[in-house]
Amino acid sequence: MAINNSDQYEDENEDENEVSELLELLEKFCLENSSLKKTIKALNKENVSLKHELECLSNKCLDDKSISLEKENETLKIEIDALKKTFSKFSNSSEKLDKLLGLQRCVYNKVGLGYDEMNNVKHFQKYLDKKDNKKISYSMTCNYCNKHGHTTHTCYRKKNDMYKRNLLLKNKLLKLRTIWVPKGTFCTNTPPLADPKQLGY
């Protein structure tokens, strides 16, 4: 019996040792479990904060992108308005040209194109008449006899003088000599032309 008691005592000691070891293991696992729960809570908090930051950043990026797109949209609208204005000028001018061509009016008659008063318009015919009168008065002077009313081509005095000179040359009463003179020199000893009055004509 003593052997049985000692065996029982040893078995109980072994059981107690195993139980104490199991309790120690349980305490270790409980500590690890509590530390893991704490880390899980901390990680969950970090996850929530990171999600919140990510949402804020994505919202800011979207806001920045939307603001930049709105600015681009405004600048493009301004450019489109400017282009519409220039094209409207072209279309308005073509309509005005069509009106002018359709009416077949005088060039100076600009009624209907924004010009209401036609009092200060110089008419084309009157303008030409004044210029023609001035041209006639200046262009109808003769360079041969310096008289007004005819030109050198129709001057009767020049024709008479040329006729008399040709007669003198044909009758050999007047001899003309032609001499080559270098350009830029002047002849000082020119023989005087024979006067037809002295010859008796």
The number of strands is 0
User: Main sheet?
Assistant: none
Number of helices: 4
Written as H for each helix and E for each strand, in order along the chain, the element string is HHHH
Task: Walk me through the structure.
The chain is mostly helical. It has a domain at 122-175. Helices cover 68% and strands 0% of the residues. It has 4 helices and no strands. It has helices spanning 2-103, 124-139, 156-170, 196-199. The protein is rod-shaped and about 190 Å long. The mean pLDDT is 75. Residues 26-86 form a coiled coil. This is CCHC-type domain-containing protein. It comes from Cephalotus follicularis.
Q: Which secondary structure elements does this structure contain, and how are they paired or packed?
A:
Blueprint: H1 2-103, H2 124-139, H3 156-170, H4 196-199
